[in-house]
Amino acid sequence: MAHQHNRSSAAAGVSDEELLAVIADFLNMGHVDNILAMVRQEPRYLAWTGQLLEDERFAVRVGVLVLLEHLVETHPHHLDLAIDGLIERLAHSVEWVRGDAASALGIIGAQRGLAALSPLRNDPSPQVVEIVSDILSSAEHG
Question: What CATH number should be reported for the domain holding residue 36?
């Protein structure tokens, strides 16, 4: 099914890179509902969650977290598509990317994502350590 969508996107002249930029711009403008509707139609966009968290615009990153919170409530079965990209970002050189990826994995709450957080208890960034400690503590007691 994703292959058909790639063809239709290409036929429309829109590459995945252009679509990713549009999604980031919409999140930056606070249009989370529009992106939520897109993801419901095409869940494969969730695989771009990690890439979106690399955006320097704070509103984009907050939008991603808000989007995930909505999807946990409405479409939790699609969230697995985001986990691999988020786990990759846990090793990112920029601390806020690591912190936001950890936060996103905490929102999703899947065991596979939570298990990947443990090494960040020793992260060089105190903020990342605090985020991860809070998430893992909540998971253990929740």
Answer: 1.25.10
Contact 76, 106 (CB under 8 A): no
Token pair 């990209």: residue: 85
DSSP 44: G
Distance CA 12, CA 16 (A): 11
136: closest CA among 125, 18, 116? 116
Query: Tell me, what amino acid is at 128?
Result: V
b/e burial code for range 22-31 (CB count within 10 A of at least 16 → b): ebbebbbeee
Domain range for 105: 2-141
Residues 117-133: pLDDT tens digits? 999 999 999 999 999 99
For the whole model, what pTM was predicted? 0.89
Number of separate domains in the chain: 1
Q: Quote the pLDDT of residue 12.
A: 65
DSSP one-letter string for 57-111: -HHHHHHHHHHHHHHHHH-GGGTHHHHHHHHHHTT-SSHHHHHHHHHHHHHH--H
- Identify the CA nearest to 20 among candidates 43, 52, 50: 52
